[in-house]
């Protein structure tokens, strides 16, 4: 039972599964039936048979349903076929009509089609023309700008051309960049830029070459107007009692330098602008930079390089080239020191160079900087000072040195007005001032020597009051006694004294010329004048006087006049100090005021002249002594003094009469010196080693000459000697001769060494030398003296005295 039930359940399940499979086969695509059919075979055994049976049953059911449907619709199908057969005839008739209508329509529309195609072609052409116009409207501005670019290049408007290029590149060409001509333009623009750079650089080089040539003219104009300005200010300052003001004189692009009068600026004087000056200024033509040189190449090149983004390259190139030109400008000509024009051209070029630099500095932004111009100026200052120091040292003409100083002052004032520091130039002027003084001293040395050469060394004769006033007007001479004398009369000094005094004043004026415009106070100028005058007196004039006194042709009379002249020049020194004080208005009582050394100068010159008087007087005495012709072996004297000695005494008398104009001490010293020299010369004559023998007669003759000398000394040839002071010059000779004339050897030997000795001034060696000369004479002349008792006794006495004198001499030598 159970088995039967299980079989029935399995059969039901199998039937249900087959139904599912069949439904799946019916609803599934034929390509996918494989897996479904496979499941039939994978199930229970003989399941496919039961499936096949089930399939056949399903097929039969579908066949019966198809048959029922066909039977249901067959009659309607037949009716439809019948209806179609009826409609075919009408369709054929309609087809013919449609074909005919189409043919007629085609024939009628062929002309319309042709016209339509023509309209279409015109519409296309119109559209193309519109497009072309639109494209041309885009291209024409590009072409116009390019044409404008070409015109700008041809007219050398390079900065505008660069702006046009920039517009082409950024605005116009991008709109039509697809066209080939625009590509060619775009490729050509960099080349045009390079061409513009090259052209502008070439113009700049031409400008630099031109400015080097025009610097001389620019500097000349600036310095000339600066000089006019200084002169104008000086006149106005004097007219307004020291109130000065400035006035524009030279402009570069409207910029005017500020100039100051040296003394007014130094003293701090205000400088107001007066209406009259403004009127003069408006009437005066003010030159601008463009009047002398065209700066457009610099501006153009600067703008071009700025637009091209290469400004730094241009700035470096410009500064480098200007530095090179500065070095060329600062190179002096080899013979510059020969004329002032050489210095003028040198300064003109430098001023022109730095005025151009100043103009470029203020008319451009950043091309030049103040630091660069200061560096360039400092380099130039070092070179200028070195050049001027070297070349001025070769200059020996004070007028040329003075002109050089004036040029340097104008040069410094001109550049100072443009902001360049010039203190080093004024420091250099102080060095040149010393050199100027040296050239003045050399020049005045020649002047003094010429004056001394032409002087007659005799008192100045004045015949009339006018002549006297003429001399006094040139030289400060005042003497009450001479003024009381009637004309004609003579002034004590010679003609050279007023000439020397005038020349010293001229020297002060010449020295003052250099001190002007140095921006120094009058106190400093006063000190400069006094120092330079001191150099003139202590070195130049003193040297000329020293040289004069040593000249061979200057005799005793001339030397006496020189001493008189120096005395009057010495007295005139205070007037020279007053002269300097009147010029500078600086009180001589000022603490730092330098005093003139003229007193010491003329004293030294006078002492030198006095020494020359003593020397020449002694030389003259020696000349007379050389004329002495003694017969040293004469048995007896002539009974009168020698002729040469009387001539000598007469010469001394006449000479000392000339000395009456000398100061008393000078005449007394000269007289005493002459007597001492004469005494010494006479003593040396008798003690000469070449003189071997002297007779007593010769001693007597020599004694007569010495007596004349003593008489001359006692006659007071020069007043002022007290007692027998002058006679003491011959005391040595007198005691020696008295010893031999009296033959008082016992007294001499007994009193030797005693302060009260009668023969205190007789030296044993001197007495021994003379005694030996007389002993030899006695032996030679008295051949038979040994046969006469008196002569033998005298000879023995001489030998005894000689021995004693030798012992004294030996004792003196041992003691010493």
From TrEMBL:
Component of the exocyst complex involved in the docking of exocytic vesicles with fusion sites on the plasma membrane. Residues 425-773 form the Exocyst complex subunit EXOC6/Sec15 C-terminal domain. This is Exocyst complex component. Keywords: Exocytosis, Transport. The keyword Transport applies. Belongs to the SEC15 family. InterPro entries: EXOC6/Sec15, EXOC6/Sec15_C, EXOC6/Sec15_C_dom1, EXOC6_Sec15_N, EXOC6PINT-1/Sec15/Tip20_C_dom2. One of its GO terms (biological process) is intracellular protein transport. One of its GO terms (cellular component) is exocyst. Gene3D superfamilies: Dsl1p vesicle tethering complex, Tip20p subunit, domain D (1.20.58.670), Exocyst complex subunit Sec15 C-terminal domain, N-terminal subdomain (1.10.357.30). Residues 54-223 form the Exocyst complex component EXOC6/Sec15 N-terminal domain.
